[in-house]
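Table S2 (text version). Query chain:
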Amino acid sequence: MWLFLVFVTLVFGLLAGFYAWTVYQKLDEFKIGHARVAELSSIIHGGAMAFLKKEYSWLAPFVGVVAVLLIAAPGLGLGSAFAFVLGALCSATAGWIGMYVATNSNGRTTYAALAAMPAEAPKKAKKSAVELDKAEAEEAPAPEAKSEGGLLTAAGNALEVAFSGGSIVGMVVVGLGLAGLAVAYLFLNDVTALTAFGMGASSIALFARVGGGIYTKAADVGADLVGKVEAGIPEDDPRNPAVIADNVGDNVGDIAGMGADLFESYVNSILAAMAIGAVYTFTPGVADSQLGLWGVGFPLFLAAWGVFSSIVGCMMISQKAPYASTVRSIIGKLPGMDVVVKRIEDGDAAFALRTGTFVAGGLMIAGTFILSILFFFSNSFNVFLSVTSGVLAGIIIGIVTEIYTSGDYKFVRNVAASSDTGAATVILSGLSLGMMSTGIPVLLICLSTLISYYLAGMFGVAVAAVGMLSITGISLSVDAYGPIADNAGGIAEMSELPEGVRKITDHLDAIGNTTAAMGKGLAIGSAALTALALFVAYSQAAHIDKIDIMNPYVIVGLLIGGMLPFIFCSLSIDAVSKAAGSMIEEVRRQFHEIPGIMEGTGRPEYEKCVAISTHAALTQMIVPGVMAIVVPVLVGFLLGKEALGGLLGGAIVTGVMMALFMANSGGAWDNAKKYIEEGHFNGKGSPNHAAAVVGDTVGDPFKDTAGPALNILIKLMTVVALVLAPLF
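Corresponding structure-token output:
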């Protein structure tokens, strides 16, 4: 039967890859007919890929050393080393392909918005924008708007292109995840050794998330504080020396880093459920009731069905995807759905993204019900409700996150209002909001844990986490489209295109900010459940029946574990602070020393700002990344397996709280600034705006560096403990 599991997993992994390839073929046919847009897109693409190449060259020796240590470790050997290297390679490949596609989609999105607009004379370009390669770029005129089966509005055409790029990123992640698991399972046929695949994925993800976060936030902070506040020039203005580094950083952090992040979340949730399912019994004490391969296969089939559901959801959004018209035609025949399909085809971007996600979620729940019956017979309804509880908890956490971080609600508006009394009150109100925002998500995680445990024990908790992440394909597609739209806006600004183009890209970016906030909430909720499931798998592997908090070694482990997320965040934020300080000094130097920058006659030295971000990211990511692997190993060897269990418990508790707090505070500060920029509280250029920019600057490393990396930290430490359990 295990060969059948491998076959099904591999087929659906390849299906996701095939969908990504066909969408890429369509995307590649769309050519950029504006020379300056093409030039800037090429520069951003080159900078992003160069950084990723250098980052991977730094990580390759680390992967090699760990693989050798796994081979030498008693009870682990070549199988674990193979799985570790394969997991690392799949994670790195997902990041590479995602970065490549995203940086080839940004300029196309800009041009799609321009091409669909009524004819309008472009602004006169500043020389600094066209002298990036010291040559005048010859501009091609914008063509007439076309609809070749796509959306008819400019925003709709831009959405089509941006989402196509995002969907390739999403499908590559789940495709490589499932295909990688299938290959590892085929060669090993051992679920225990297979967990090293997750360790490899988590290792790369942590470095990618921390390194990418440091890179992008160093550039972003420098560009904002000197450009917006001191020089008073718009965001993405070509006169800002940090503008290229900022746009490169959007891809480094929000595409490569985020893709690796969700890749490891996805595979670790599946691996945890497989490890628990292999030995779980619905009837304790009855040996022949052990699930065995049925428990191993169920999470794999859930993930496989999630790929199909995600593809259907993507077809609802993207009208140029293969067979998309057929899917919409079928769904449009359902009661009341004809109106929904018509609204999507009329170009309502926000509605399209939400509908596609809900369609995928609905299909996932329906498929889960059928799979539960096929796999578990008398216990099918309990398993189905366990998975559903995870899906619903994830959706509600996402909605709560949106309420706390969107400018459409009172919480962010209150943060914006606090700018009347300066930057200090903006920071205080954002901190308060972030702390308060942990309440409902944590209670939802607790509720989902208790419901799923009551219904199906720890196997129920594990498959609830799989349920949360089952439609990662479309969730990441929607998430990844946001940075592409953001980059498209930057290219429009630097290319001096008509104002209408920037309005379109800003509109799509604003929708992307909302969907990204929901994605962060989902990632944190799934991280908690996945880490808990991995913790249980570790307890099984280490033969620990219970964690006794009266044991002083366990207490020491709890305290060390609770401390680690704070140390990790300190290192990450300090790295951003140091790099941003260097960036600010460099941008100020160029404004003072290079004549003609503000007039548009002098060319900023963009390359020096890119070099600052690159150096900071590569040098500062090492210590936080290594700490996540070394500390659990030291505690396990020096204090014992029970102390290590305490460490994992402490890290999960404080890590989840810190991740929620930091992500929501950062999101609220960001959108409070944008709310003021829309014209509220005296608008751009006012003291209120300056105060909000300071708050956003503090929030940048919160929401894009330390906060998201905490999700990976708690899972990486737990999966390291699981893989090395035979040694303790």
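Notes on Table S2: The chain has a mean pLDDT of 84. The longest helix spans residues 499-541.
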